[in-house]
TrEMBL record:
Its main location: membrane. It is a multi-pass membrane protein. Belongs to the patched family. It comes from the Eukaryota. One of its GO terms (cellular component) is membrane. Residues 208-365 form the SSD domain. This is Patched domain-containing protein 3-like. Keywords: Glycoprotein, Membrane, Transmembrane, Transmembrane helix. Pfam families: Patched. The keyword Lyase does not apply.
Length: 728
């Protein structure tokens, strides 16, 4: 099993993953001086958001929050024969657990809130500058003084050490259990942890297995029931049973082969059985339809030969194009899509193999039963006509009728409707025009949807609908949506920070960042160092003075030491600073804009934030989806040209597939579904299903002995119309 969200739903070779590697190698984490700002990953933490319809900065509400904080920090967790609390596993700063700024400001006494004049978004205390926008949400401030008048949400974080994962995971689970009942009359509490989304995603299979089972059972039952005939000899119920069994064998063989070869199984691959069932049953209906068009007076080998002559090419076209479409999907940069396409492609190959061998053999056995005019259940020989005045006998004990004129099995009712009514209706000139108008309307709606289609995976969709994470994400979006991520900007080249020219270049780069509408503020060690030097009247324009006073500054502000990478000669190899972004543009626009600004800087810069790992999907999903679809359509066109003896029909097959993809993509946008790795899997599945119907109909049209195009279309519908309805 491979259910790691980052591995499966982010680009395999995304730019942010390379940036993260550089950050981790150049600026290693100092575990004794924890800094949330400087994390190269999401970290290991628990968090809660306390909300209130009224001002939450009241003594009553803060007392409830402080009591909850006390319970969390003193919560005892059993681990083996030992017990531990938050203090034993917390992330530390100078020997103490990292704390929450808002609680520090009131000195863990709710009564002190009245004496504080909090300013937002930053509060300057005697010892440090506090980013209150990380702690307070839905804040109302005095426009002139920026003093906080009220707030409706407070967010608390509890960061843990990165080591000893079993121990910290146990504490996180205990945190979830305890906080789940923390809401009261004064506050409502939503909560999450660094592992919550991963745990919720891993719960998905068990939550949907019952739905999968019911859906699969319904599909199988319908497939078998649609092959039932009132004629006790001509019924194809056993062929249907073995058709479903053949599909199950292909799924078992495909999954088993890949798992034996070490290919990880991911959750999206669980939808493969539905896809393979559709393809396998579709092929089964084609073979049954072709068998019914053979002469019942012929021998079984002759009937089977005619069946394969009629159906095998059609099945080969669809199976080959399906398999190629899935294997081409393996070029996707997303692990989930790669795994799904590999499983689906191999299963399609096994499905084709079993259908032309095992299912054909089962049809031959069933044909021998029909040849002997034997009952489908008892295998006893039954008369063609019932005895006189015996209604029960006519229902249960007779069979084997056929058309005496054509010497073929009697036409199904649906096929008769297609041949006598729907086909002539569809080929009427006025109806053709109407169909064309409807089709153009559908295409226009699809194209419009494609133009407004949004890309990107909303990670909230990976959690269950009834998950506690839904409330947390809603609260975060409602109360803390003003500010976005705090982006690291690494200076990757060696520069002379004391040199005026180099300083101006770096300053111009910072000004370029700050000129962006979605950048709010900058935190940089060299800016703080300059302020420190100015306040103490230090001259840092020479290398010697710069290094001397920098050493003193880092003793005064040790947190900044993590932002500088020194060589063995005490020279600065690389450094970093931080820019706070606002949530007033899309994530894609923010990330690409910052990266572009960094590239335009005369100094080599690298920008990174852990969220960029997920944001990278925006840069590849559209381009890769278009590439995959176009390559798949081109490959299908080549296969169709090789196997369908008509250039025009081959082009129409490719165009039909392309128009289906446009429609599915467009209506996804109209239904509010984003283009992401999961919906991309559905698009790949759409290619497989759409090529089946279009290729079958086109091949049947070309193979029809009729000369008039309208008659060829009617003949193709009569031949495959009922099959297409059942398969759909």
């Amino acid at each position: 099993m491979s259910n790691n969200i980052e591995e499966e739903f982010t680009p395999v070779n995304g730019q942010a993953k390379k940036e993260r590697k550089y950050i981790q190698e150049t600026f290693p984490v100092n575990e004794s001086t924890f800094s949330r700002l400087r994390l190269s990953t999401d970290g290991n933490y628990a968090t809660l958001i306390a909300t209130s319809d009224r001002n939450i900065l009241t003594v009553e509400s803060l007392q409830v929050i402080l009591h909850l904080d006390l319970k969390i920090r003193h919560m005892v967790v059993e681990f083996g024969n030992q017990s531990f609390t938050y203090a034993d596993i917390c992330a530390e700063v100078m020997g103490s657990c990292v704390s929450n700024d808002i609680l520090d400001l009131i000195q863990y006494n709710a009564s002190n809130i009245g004496a504080l004049r909090l300013t937002f978004p930053w509060y300057d205390s005697d010892s440090k500058r506090v980013p209150l926008y990380l702690s307070l949400g839905s804040v109302k401030v005095n426009e002139e003084s920026s003093v906080v008048e009220s707030a409706h949400a407070i967010q608390l974080y509890y960061y843990l050490q990165e080591g000893n994962k079993p121990k910290t995971d146990l504490w996180l689970e205990k945190f979830i259990d305890m906080v789940s009942n923390a809401s009261s009359a004064h506050i409502q509490v939503s909560y999450s942890t660094s592992m919550s989304l991963q745990w919720e995603f891993e719960e998905t299979p068990s939550s949907v297995i019952s739905l999968f089972s019911i859906t699969y059972a319904i599909a199988i039952t319908f497939s078998i029931a649609s092959c039932w005939r009132l004629d006790n000899v001509r019924t194809k119920v056993w062929v249907a049973w073995f058709g479903v069994f053949s599909t199950g064998l292909s799924i078992l063989s495909g999954f088993g082969a890949l798992l034996l070869l070490g290919q990880p199984f991911v959750m999206p691959a669980a939808s493969c059985p539905f896809l393979i069932l559709g393809i396998g049953i579709d092929d089964m209906f084609i073979m049954i339809s072709s068998w019914q068009r053979t002469c019942v007076m012929d021998s079984v080998p002759t009937r089977l030969a005619h069946t394969y002559k009629d159906a095998a090419m059609s099945i080969t076209i669809t199976s080959l194009t399906d398999a190629l479409a899935f294997f081409l999907g393996f070029i996707s940069p997303f692990g989930s899509v790669q795994s799904f396409c590999m499983y689906a492609g191999i299963c399609v190959c096994f499905c084709y193999l079993y259908n032309i061998t095992f299912l054909g053999a089962c049809m031959a056995l069933n044909g021998h039963r029909e040849e002997g005019n034997r009952h489908w259940f008892t295998c006893a020989v039954v008369p063609v006509s019932p005895a006189e005045n015996s209604n029960a006998c006519s229902i249960c004990c007779v069979g084997g009728k056929y058309d005496n004129v054509t010497e073929k099995e009697e036409t199904e009712f649906i096929s008769h409707v297609f041949e006598k009514f729907y086909g002539p209706f569809l080929t009427h000139k006025l109806i053709k025009v109407l169909v064309l108008v409807i089709y153009l309307g559908y295409l226009a709606a699809g194209i419009y949807g494609c133009l407004i289609l949004e890309e990107g995976l909303d990670i909230r969709n990976l959690a269950l609908d009834d998950s506690y994470l839904v409330a947390y994400y809603d609260d975060q979006r409602q109360h803390f949506s003003g500010y976005s991520v705090n982006v690291m900007v690494a200076v990757t080249q060696t520069i002379e920070y004391w040199n005026r020219t180099e300083q101006e270049s770096l300053q111009s780069c910072i000004l370029n960042f700050q000129s962006l509408s979605y950048v709010n503020s900058t935190v940089a060690w060299f800016l703080s160092f300059q302020q420190y030097a100015d306040a103490n009247a230090f001259d840092i324009s020479s290398e010697e003075a710069f290094q001397t006073h920098l050493s003193q500054f880092l003793q005064h502000a040790p947190m900044f030491r993590q932002d500088i990478n020194f060589t063995a000669d005490n020279e600065i190899r690389a450094s970093r600073f931080f820019i706070q972004t606002l949530d007033n543009v899309t994530e894609k626009e923010m990330m690409t804009g910052i990266r572009k600004t960094a590239e335009e800087c005369p100094i080599k810069l690298l920008v990174y934030h852990p969220a960029f790992i997920y944001f990278d999907q925006y840069t590849v999903i559209v381009e890769n989806t278009i590439q995959t679809v176009l390559v798949a359509v081109c490959v299908m066109l080549v296969v169709a040209l090789l196997l369908i003896p008509s250039l025009l029909c081959s082009l129409w097959v490719a165009f039909a597939v392309l128009s289906v993809i446009v429609g599915v993509s467009g209506f996804m946008a109209l239904w509010g579904v984003n283009l992401d790795s999961i919906s991309m899997i559905n698009l790949v599945m759409s290619i497989g299903f759409s090529v089946d119907f279009s290729a079958h109909i086109s091949y049947s049209f070309v193979s029809s002995p009729k000369r008039d195009p309208n008659q060829k279309a009617i003949d193709a519908l009569a031949h495959l119309g009922s099959h297409d309805i059942n398969a759909a």
